[in-house]
Specification:
Layout lengths: L22 H8 L18 E2 L5 E5 L4 H6 L6 H13 L6 E5 L6 E3 L6 E3 L4 H18 L3 E5 L1 H8 L5 H4 L4 E5 L2 E8 L2 H6 L3 H19 L1
Parallel strand pairs: 2-3, 2-6, 6-8
Antiparallel strand pairs: 1-3, 4-5, 7-8
Length: 216
């Protein structure tokens, strides 16, 4: 007797992708994505932003509270820290394309009406959202992908990914049918949570300098 399938097995954004791929078309289509239940509580889809053919793509986890409210990725405290770290590493933030592995904000509340608390997406939710990230990679065709944190790493490189094992190194992997060069590092939000924020920040900058060197 076949195993009963969970409703989560059907999670996928694939039916919502447009027939012709461009960033503008993807952004419009993603606004109506219902590929997994995360859209139900989020304010809006938060799609990537940046140059259509940027040399470097930065991939984070998911939108945070401010990103969900404003509709753009990396506009909160972690995004501001990332912009400074890119500049300190010699990468112009204006030349990058930034996005997330998951396009809707997943959160919980300690009490009704209280602050929304970030909740990591599941592997199934990341898998459901993967068609959007694959399409962004196809359209932007970056020379290098900077992987920001463990969740982005798992989405791109598989569930066994551990950021501490490979951060600050240049990897080459087949991803969504393309050979990509990637530099993994920590998510900037982890710097903000660190007990030694300066040391954590310098570690992030050092990893981003590896990315800058790979682009030179």
């Amino acid at each position: 007797m076949p195993a009963t399938k969970s409703p989560e097995d059907a999670y996928t954004a694939a039916p919502f992708l447009p027939d012709r791929l461009s960033l503008a078309a993807l952004r419009r289509a993603a606004a109506d994505c219902r590929g997994c239940p995360l859209h139900r509580d989020a304010t809006q889809t938060v799609f990537g932003k940046g140059k259509a053919h940027a040399r470097v793509m930065l991939v984070g986890e998911q939108p945070g509270d401010q990103e969900d409210r404003q509709g753009e990725p990396f506009v909160g405290p972690a995004g501001r820290l990332l912009g400074k770290a890119l500049e300190d590493a010699g990468i112009d933030p204006a030349d990058a394309y930034v996005t997330n592995a998951v396009k809707h904000f997943k959160f919980t509340r300690a009490e009704p009406g209280k602050r929304r608390i970030h909740k990591p997406p599941t592997l199934r939710e990341m898998s459901a959202c993967a068609p959007w990230l694959a399409a962004e990679l196809t359209v932007v065709a970056p020379e290098l992908v900077v992987v920001l944190g463990a969740t982005a790493g798992k989405a791109l490189l598989g569930s066994s990914f551990r950021v501490g094992d490979v951060r600050g190194t240049v990897l080459e992997r087949e991803i969504h049918g393309r050979t990509e060069r990637l530099v993994p590092t920590v998510h900037p939000s982890s710097v903000l949570r660190s007990d030694d924020r300066e040391q954590a920040y310098q570690g992030l900058v050092a990893d981003l300098k590896v990315a800058a060197q790979a682009l030179s």
